[in-house]
Amino acid sequence: MIDKNAGKLPEVLIDAEKLKAEFYKTSLPPLPVKFGTSGHRGVLGGGFCALHARAIAQAVAKMHKEDNIKGKILVGGDTRLMSRATAEICARVLAANGFKVVLPDIAVPTPVFSFEILSKRVCASLNGTASHNPPQDMGLKYNPSNGGPAQSGVTLKIEKYANYFLQNPNEIKEISLQNAEENGFIEKADIITPYVKALGKKIDFKIIKSAAIKAAIHPMGGASLAFYDAIKKEYSLDNLNIVSRDVSPDFKFIALDHDGKIRMDPSSKYPMRPLLDLVASGAYQFAAASDPDADRFGCATAKGGLIPPNHALCVMLDYLIRKQNPSKKMKAGRTLGTTHLIDKIASAAGLGVEEVNIGFKYFVDGLLNNSLIMGGEESAGMSVNKWVTEKDGILAVFLLLEIMSATAQDIAGLYKQLTALHGDPVYTRIDMPVSEEIKTNFKKTNAASFADLKEVAGERAIKIRDGDGVKIYLEDSWFLARPSGTEAIVKFYAETFRGAAQLERIIEEGRKIFRL
User: Fold this and answer.
1) Are 269 and 312 part of one and the same domain?
2) pTM above 0.90, yes or no
3) Cα(144)–Cα(142) distance, rounded to whole angstroms?
């Protein structure tokens, strides 16, 4: 159901002073630390407070000592209300435990944490962000030496130690920032120049400059603003206009999303409305955005309007294959819930596909060892080989602009060319509210639970996969159900190459099969 205020600017904003007080309150019982696919997140107060930051930092310090992990730790965050405070708390705790910390003066995008780690200037990072969640949310992400999201073995250890320190806060070490700086435990660093110059080796800015496509960029109030400024200056992109410079932590300039919440999601038509209006007016041929921590992308074009992430990923993959002529040993990486048009594009080029569980951490090894040309997920995250092992919304924005510049074609038109060659898929994702009983029962199902399934919606069942929900593969279609880890919903994904009516049949029969 779409909220009646979706697409409108918010009338009610966060109470910053109240949320700050809740963040520092010592009387509230904090919820346990729980790392999802991107760290621990929660609403400021019981969901995420100063004690969470202190406990997680102390847990990381304990783990680094036990595992003999040496090197500086990059600490920072995006533009959220308590991101800077969270970063400073982490820096104080790490310094008190004898670790040297790099604490930049500016907000730090998620891909830049990965870039700094892979450049060997730091060995790990703590990143204060809640991605594109509403403004009252806050979180912490840990990235280890591979630069990507931490694997479950690492996050389980951090959870265990952090929850111990939540119960035993007197065992957390902490010193003042001044003390840490005076004793050489905290240093500043230029994190913009190295990233911007290295990006020039992945993106052809000469083509972008010469094509002079009128392009609008919206940082969505996030950490990418200073980086877009630096890129524009470094590569003399006079055709590029940064259309919003507002970094207010209440995000009052972001239109309400489908559910009436402020959500800085660059793949949703509601927060993206200003950019859609710009391309519709003819003022710009291309408009793009990244979310507050710049790990997700969104784009709109004059001919195509808002480009779905699945469509953009297909166009990017096809372009990268043509540009790089990769070894036949390389694969295209996609998550379980991402379009299978990627498979057809890869197959036509003689490449395989690596399908992984949902979570960008599953692409890390392939991106590091150069076996993946690209890793992409339907929720608008991607990166490429020989680059960062985190999602990079900044890279994605400029790769899409390079594609339009190099081909002199609209992204939507390029996608239509691909569907003309390989088939035109119809795709959906539905968040289905369910009772806790239904959700619990579904968690008990696996591939063996559907071993007798022969046919769905008139298509033969080819394969069934479990391990991250249950996915059923048909002749020209597939569907997947995954229970949420935090909400009473089951996420249902489906795609078919047989048209919209077939998709409706699959949804109907799929719900019955999964008892949703």
Assistant:
1) yes
2) yes
3) 7
Q: How many CB atoms lie within 10 A of CB 52?
A: 27
Residue 276 within any structural domain of the chain: yes
Element (H, E) at 195: helix 192-199
Q: Using one digit for the tens of pLDDT, what is the confidence trace for 73-105?
A: 999 999 999 999 999 999 999 999 999 999 999
Among 38, 114, 131, 383, the one annotated catalytic: 131
Tokens, residue 379: 């929720």
Domain with residue 247: its CATH number is 3.40.120.10
Known catalytic membership, residue 145: no
Centre a 10 Å sphere on the Cβ of residue 452 and count the other Cβ atoms it contains.
7
C-alpha–C-alpha distance, residues 283 and 278, integer Å? 6
Beta partners for residue 431, in sequence order: 491
Nearest to 240 by CA among 266, 212, 220: 212
Query: Domain range for residue 393?
Result: 194-422
| Residue 228 Cα distances to 25, 76, 157, angstroms | 37, 18, 36
Q: Are residues 139 and 233 in the same domain?
A: no
Answer for the pair 66, 118: CB distance below 8 angstroms, yes or no: no
What's the whole-number mean pLDDT along residues 202-215?
A: 98
Return the closest-CA partner of residue 202 out of 415, 392, 408, 346.
392
Q: Residue 173 and residue 169: Cα distance in Å, rounded?
A: 9
445's tokens: 């199902």
Helices (H), 374-499: 393-407, 411-422, 436-443
Please identify, among 377, 403, 422, the residue that sits at the C-terminal boundary of a domain.
422
- Interval 278-307: pLDDT, tens: 999 999 999 999 999 999 999 999 999 999
